[in-house]
Amino acid sequence: MGILTWTWILVGITFALYIGIAIWARAGSSKEFYVAGGGVPPIMNGMATAADWMSAASFISLAGIVSFTGYDGSVYLMGWTGGYVLLALLLAPYLRKFGKFTVPDFIGDRYYSNTARVVAVIAALIVSFTYVAGQMRGVGIVFSRYLEVDINTGVYIGMAIVLFYAVLGGMKGITYTQVAQYCVLIFAFMVPAIFISFQMTGNPIPQLGFGSAGEDGIYLLDKLDGLSTQLGFNEYTSGNKSMIDVFAITVALMVGTAGLPHVIVRFFTVPRVKDARVSAGWALLFIAILYTTVPAVAVFARTKLIETVSNAEYAELPEWFGNWEKTGLIKFEDKNADGVVQYVADKSVNELTIDRDIMVLANPEIAQLPNWVIALVGAGGLAAALSTAAGLLLVIASSISHDLFKKIIKPDISEKGELIAARLSAFVAVLIAGYFGINPPGFVAAVVALAFGLAAASFFPAILLGIFDKRMNKEGAISGMIVGLSLMFFYMAKYKLGWIGEMPDSSEWWFGISPEGFGTVAMIVNFIISIVVSRFTPAPPQHVQDIVEDIRIPSGAGEASDH
């Protein structure tokens, strides 16, 4: 059977599974819609959290970044994985003990202020929409190749699917759907990695394979270094970024992970405080399976790509090249009209433009694996993008319906009315997310990295200080969030999106820090402003200080359920 037939079969089966689960687990109350009724077992919550967090950026784009940037791409691996350790140790158990549905709910109650709640809602919406743009773009890329439609049509199809199970099932439906999606995405990522590792090195374990020698006796990384330098690129195993930028990006991704509202809300879906910590541990294990494989997939893909296309006759290129060329994600421009592909670092000579988001998806085709494996990767990419998109849409819906309508605009709204507001909010959010998917501000992982920077600049200081600093008050938290978020947004708009004047080059970056890493600077400014302002303004009420004291007491934490 051909790739298209296999794709329809595998995507059809997986989508039927997701939709069936959404119908079976549909939400009947606002608690089920927001936090799945608080009864999800830790191992399942860990699996759902892993699927929620391993988005299109992790599945589709991360190995693409590493394959093109080599050593420099390791900041994403360190930052995103390290962030999970931060989340498990510093935030998850305490937030669960506090017992609120959403991050704005925590900030509104902890800082005894509707103004703080509104600022947190705005921050949650900005972070979530920035993040979801990357997911919808990922969905479009997968559909464009495997269903042979254009990227925009792919985004529309993805919008319809996400809308169905996010609006119908809420967190309850999404949680059990994400368990299925994790199984699909991890199987889809590992199967081709094992195939290619064995094909290139004789070792079926990818993590060991990419450090092994190939059939020619040359170590794979040495071979890739040689191929890269021959074409004028940097050595694959040497870094190009400055130490300050590597540090800033890693920290921004770490604290951004720990401040992501759609990940934090997952720890409210388990029965007890102890379960929040256990499920964070399970999630880290499930995430590590993919993340330790990414560097191997990156090396396999980059080596195969260079060997296949560099100095090859265009007319003799394999079928996969033509398939991806139709999507517009790989382009050949014969500048010297000799019919030979010149793939080099020198832009004036280079004739090949490759969207780095295609590397994982095209990898099985480049390696000439069976059609069912190629289609399986497409199904995995969709699972990764749709699972995270659904989680983000739920954050958007709950921020609007629960934190704005229920808590501020209409406190007497009925349970049914709140559920309707949540579903309407999710519907509008899907439309906006689709727009950003069609008009993305960059490739998938870069867009997602900006969302992490925004989360680091806004939420992380407010949450951390809210847990560990009794003296932190509403004036400090509000000032810090506004300044941190505004600073990050300005830097992003000027140095990444080019919305303010002409796009400056990297020599003009503040402190030599890229937009992806600037969340660290904005976070530090947020911390300083929050602490200074809080010390010059009245202390929080005594009952708030007592709550802060209480959520840090571990005694009996295993039995605590709601506080």
UniProtKB/TrEMBL annotation:
GO cellular component, one term: plasma membrane
InterPro entries (alphabetical): Na/Glc_symporter_sf (IPR038377), Na/solute_symporter (IPR001734), Na/solute_symporter_VC_2705 (IPR019899), Sodium:Solute_Symporter (IPR050277)
Recorded GO MF terms: transmembrane transporter activity
Record membrane topology: Multi-pass membrane protein
Compartments it resides in: Membrane
CDD domains to which the protein is assigned, alphabetical: SLC5sbd_u4 (cd11480)
Record keywords, A-Z: Membrane, Transmembrane, Transmembrane helix, Transport
Residues annotated as transmembrane: 6-25, 77-95, 116-133, 153-170, 182-200, 246-268, 280-301, 372-398, 419-438, 444-468, 475-493, 513-533
Family: Belongs to the sodium:solute symporter (SSF) (TC 2.A.21) family.
The protein's name: Cation acetate symporter
Organism: Gramella jeungdoensis
